[in-house]
């Protein structure tokens, strides 16, 4: 019996050996064929290869083409600069910058400064309400109602004042007011919501402790004494550090954070999300700080120079073809405006998210400098909006998206709500200063939802590179189109009699 088994196993192994010998991989065939061809006397010089521009070639070193494209773009930019100087002359005037930025174009009393100063009123109302809620002097329902009314009125104040007294506001002053009030709205929302989380957690902990009296071990008693010691060190020490050798900062606990110094630090910090204990740096890097200060100063001049020399003439020249609906000339003006607008947008991005926010973070010892991610590599629209403005993205996820999902809504519904919220404030920052209430910015932001599906389709069907190209095309062409539409509506609304 054992002999038959061994014989069958031997035959099976022979069959397997014949099968393996009958099948050869393509690489082995190619290798054998190449060796046979090389042995021929005709000295062969050809072998199977794909062209370098074919995806299957695996070639990815296009450094020379990138240098060629950069040089070509530089030469084209220089030509446009020379054409602009020849046609319009030198329009850059630093005196006008100073006049606009200091508000001398406004009416009596600097209304923008007064309106910004008034923002301290809702801030103090918010702090007093939180103190009343923490001490349980104010009922929760009444306190939250006051908070909601307070932050809604905060947004409405610039809309009403600028609409009624718009003739005494300069355009830059009105834009500054709306921008500050918008940031203040987001920060106070975060401040109220975080304190609500802390207040609920504290009450739940208190109820759980009062529900059943538990025995306390020596270790728990010692841990409690250590926590009290840390609190005493944070309140009595000027530095806020414990007395141990590691110098570990003592954590602030609710409601010890409810004082003006903590709130005003958060209002100045380069973030929109409130925390009781922000990560802090130990020192200010002087060289880093000086670099950021120089970048802010130089960057403001570059942005203003591009705006005066290049943007204003291009926008003005687009009025007539845009009004006459001349599609050919409108497309030409759109492409001509796209280059200076995109350069100014890139400068504004670097100036704001790298130079200015790092400057504020360094002065305030704020350690979290994740102000932007690699949005330039975004393969779809969703990735771009999640990476280019990290403070706003973190706020939307933390205070809007996650709470909406926790209420039982789907992720798609939460995303639509976030885009709707963002679209409202994009429209708010444009329409209120211009006193031209249109919906172009709102429509452009809501159009990002179907555009994201198109970008994802491009990414999955044609590859990530095409999705990235669609993202860049929407950035380069979308903004100048919105500028042309708003400028047209602004001129028609305010200067139509003069044009006629």
Automatic annotation (TrEMBL):
Subcellular location: Endoplasmic reticulum membrane
GO molecular function: diacylglycerol O-acyltransferase activity; retinol O-fatty-acyltransferase activity
Compositionally biased intervals (Basic and acidic residues): 25-48
Keywords: Acyltransferase, Endoplasmic reticulum, Membrane, Transferase, Transmembrane, Transmembrane helix
UniProt superkingdom: Eukaryota
Keyword Transferase appears in the UniProt entry: yes
Any GO BP: triglyceride biosynthetic process
Family: Belongs to the membrane-bound acyltransferase family. Sterol o-acyltransferase subfamily.
Protein name: O-acyltransferase
Protein species of origin: Anopheles sinensis (Mosquito)
């Amino acid at each position: 019996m054992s002999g038959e088994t061994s014989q069958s196993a031997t035959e099976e192994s022979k069959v397997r050996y014949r099968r393996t010998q009958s099948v050869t991989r393509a690489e082995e065939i190619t290798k054998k064929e190449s060796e046979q061809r090389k042995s021929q006397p005709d000295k062969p010089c050809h072998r199977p290869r794909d062209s370098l521009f074919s995806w299957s070639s695996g070639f990815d070193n296009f450094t020379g083409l990138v240098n060629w494209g950069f040089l070509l773009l530089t030469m084209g930019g220089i030509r446009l600069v020379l054409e602009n100087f020849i046609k319009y002359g030198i329009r850059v005037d630093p005196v006008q910058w100073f006049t606009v930025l200091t508000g001398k174009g406004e009416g009596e009393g600097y209304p923008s400064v007064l309106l910004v100063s008034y923002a301290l009123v809702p801030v103090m109302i918010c702090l007093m309400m939180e103190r009343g809620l923490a001490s349980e002097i104010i009922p929760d329902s009444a306190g939250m109602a006051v908070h909601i009314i307070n932050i809604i009125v905060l947004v409405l104040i610039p809309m009403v004042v600028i609409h009624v007294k718009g003739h005494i506001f300069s355009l830059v002053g009105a834009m500054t007011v709306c921008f500050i009030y918008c940031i203040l709205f987001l920060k106070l929302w975060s401040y109220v919501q975080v304190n609500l989380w802390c207040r609920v957690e504290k009450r739940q902990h208190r109820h759980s402790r009062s529900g059943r009296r538990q025995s306390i071990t020596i270790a728990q008693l010692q841990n409690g004494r250590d926590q009290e010691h840390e609190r005493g060190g944070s309140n009595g020490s000027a530095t806020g550090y414990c007395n141990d050798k590691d110098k570990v900062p003592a954590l602030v606990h609710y409601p010890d954070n409810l004082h003006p110094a903590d709130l005003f630090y958060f209002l100045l910090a380069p973030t929109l999300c409130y925390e009781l204990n922000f990560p802090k740096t130990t020192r200010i890097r002087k060289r880093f700080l000086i670099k950021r200060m120089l970048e802010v100063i130089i960057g403001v001049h570059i942005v203003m120079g591009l705006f005066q020399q290049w943007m204003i003439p291009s926008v003005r020249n687009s009025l007539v073809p845009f009004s006459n609906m001349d599609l050919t000339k409108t497309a030409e003006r759109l492409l001509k405006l796209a280059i200076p607008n995109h350069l100014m947008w890139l400068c504004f991005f670097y100036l704001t998210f790298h130079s200015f926010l790092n400057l504020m973070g360094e002065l305030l010892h704020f350690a979290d400098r994740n102000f932007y991610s690699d949005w330039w590599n975004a393969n779809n629209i969703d990735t771009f909006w999640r990476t280019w403005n990290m403070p706003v993205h973190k706020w939307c996820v933390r205070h809007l998206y996650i709470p909406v999902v926790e209420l039982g809504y789907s992720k798609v519904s939460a995303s639509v709500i976030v885009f709707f919220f963002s679209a409202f404030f994009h429209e708010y920052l444009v329409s209120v200063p211009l006193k031209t209430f249109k919906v172009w910015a709102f429509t452009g932001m809501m159009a990002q939802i179907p555009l994201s599906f198109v970008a994802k389709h491009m990414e999955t069907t044609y590859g990530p590179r095409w999705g990235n190209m669609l993202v860049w095309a929407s950035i380069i062409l979308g903004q100048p189109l919105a500028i042309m539409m708003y400028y047209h509506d602004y001129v028609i609304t305010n200067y139509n009699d003069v044009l006629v």
